[in-house]
Amino acid sequence: MPEGHVFICGDPHGEFGPLIECVHRHRPEAVVLAGDIQAKRPLDEELASILPLTQVWWIPGNHDTDSDADYDNLFGSGLAHRNLDGRVVTIAGLRIAGLGGIFRGQVWMPPEAPRLVSEADYLAKCGKGNYWRGGLPRRHRSTIFPQTYNALLSQHADVLVSHEAPACDPHGFEAIDTLIEAMGVQRAFHGHHHESTAYPTTGLCRIFGLGACAVATIDGAFLPSVLTCPDQDEGG
Length: 236
Known about the structure:
By secondary structure, this protein is an alpha/beta fold. It has 6 helices and 10 strands; from the N terminus they run E-H-E-H-E-H-E-E-H-H-E-H-E-E-E-E.
């Protein structure tokens, strides 16, 4: 796998100090935020000091649809086009795939069969009275739909950044392992559970969990910061 100078950042929950410090210190080519961003103002404003220094990419987490402000400050920001969810993009020479959001039982809770496949299916079922801004309810804009997952299955990537964890985490899903294997991923990073972990290697892919605000290199080395992230409840 080519070794791009890319950092992966665990759930910030509105606290960007550790990431900003690491970018100023190490100058990576790109950073990818692994969800639960919850910017207090548009993300491009929160990260204005590092935008001249690095590319910023992101996937959404479940908390990024908690409120209109959480949603708008991310999906409506000047970095909206850097959403990696459901995409494979070549970044710093690496093919990086993103799978944002979480599994929800109304749509799909693996290993059970999906109840619905696409956003269009959900809209047809929920009724227009439940639409938000003319479309999918806000909460489900951070739900993993099988259509998005299946589109990634047929692609190839060096790195996967997901909010949900694979099965090596006690709260993870084998569906993420299936995606890793199908895509030929060699490094996988997940957020959501707020624990910085290098899981035992059992196959070709090395898998890492990211603590809240943690910053890791593409090799899985966690970078120290003089700044600390406020404690977050597990499973954010």
